[in-house]
Amino acid sequence: MVSKLLVFGGNGFLGKRICQEAVNNGFQVMSLSRSGRPPRPQSPQDKDWIGEVQWEAADVFDPLSYNRHLRDATDVVHSLGILLEDESYKVKVRNPLNKSFDFKSLMPSFGSNPLDKKNPNFTYERMNKESALILAQAFRQTLSSHEAKRRDMPTFTYISADKGFPLIPKGYINSKRQAEAELMHYEGLFRPILVRPGFMFDEYKTTADARSYVHNGLELLNCGNRVLLRNKLRFVNELIRPTISTQQVSRNIISKIKDPSFSGIVSLESMLSMN
Fold first, then answer.
1. Is residue 198 part of a domain?
2. Which residues contact residue 33 at a Cβ distance below 8 angstroms, ignoring those fewer than 6 apart?
3. In this structure, are residues 154 and 74 in contact, taking their beta carbons and an 8 Å threshold?
4. Which residues lie in coiled coils (predicted)?
């Protein structure tokens, strides 16, 4: 039996790499997003796996738009969320050539313009927490009527976060932790997999943007912490966290989905330690 993986936000920064890794591991993959469009290829290899994914449009807040896809899904991934709630938190990152970049480019992509203040869903509560719980409840209802047909317990993967970030409101990490706690209540119906990546970058990125500059800065700080402080100061270790590639995160997610004994939190340290 071929496993069917549904990735909500599968055309986003991390979501597309989850789709790619799942295809490479023999999953039947469907991406659901507001637009339903595939991502732009970033390398020649991308064209191959993109052609293997079924790209569909759906609204995570409206289960009627995707219930039919959940009925035969063995695994679901929630790869949606926001880092900032509105434009008042927007900052600029400048490179040595004085080119400015919008901080919103660091945020996950989930469809239409996330910085549209007319969008009532653009809050931590709605995007980071309620969207996941609505999806989990819809998945649970599907499982209750089809569980007899399933040999292995299905999985629900939630992309959470390692820590909060300086200058980012506490509501960001609080909404993530609240969603995690609620999802663990479903243990027994499906395996909750709660993934906590740090700042992510893509291994195939070839052009500089805001994310690239932030990534380089964080890597420099991490290097200094390792070489000069030898990671001995706990408060520094809590503040300066390692970065991780979307490919590493995706490999860990698929590995945990395929492990029938695993449920719970996937920490940043455990992901970095995986070969």
1. yes
2. 8, 9, 10, 11, 12, 15, 55, 57, 58, 110, 111
3. yes
4. none
Is 37 inside any structural domain?
yes
Residue 153's nearest CA partner among 265, 266, 73, 78 is 73
pLDDT band, residue 18 (cuts 50/70/90): very high
User: Left, alpha or beta for 188 (phi > 0: left; psi -120 to 50: alpha)?
Assistant: left
Q: Which two tokens stand for residue 150?
A: 């399933």
Residue matched to tokens 């992309």: 159
The residue-averaged pLDDT of 1-14 equals 94
Q: Can you give the residue range of the structural domain that contains 17?
A: 4-90+107-204+244-273
Quote the percentage of the chain above a pLDDT of 90: 59
Count how many domains the chain has: 1
**DSSP-assigned letters across all residues of 251-273:** HHHHHHHH-TT--EEE-HHHHHH
With respect to residue 20, please indicate whether it lies within any of the assigned structural domains. Answer: yes
Of 137, 231, 217, 235, give the one whose Cα is nearest residue 185.
Answer: 137
Q: Which two tokens stand for residue 122?
A: 């653009």
Domain containing residue 254: CATH number:
3.40.50.720
Spatial distance between the Cα atoms of 135 and 143, rounded to a whole number of angstroms: 12
The DSSP annotation for 153-219 comes to --EEEEE--SS--TTS-HHHHHHHHHHHHHHHTTBTTBEEEEE---SEE-TT--S--HHHHHHHHHH
Q: What is the DSSP string of 117-163?
A: TT-TT-SHIIIIIIHHHHHHHHHHHHHHHHGGG-SS--EEEEE--SS
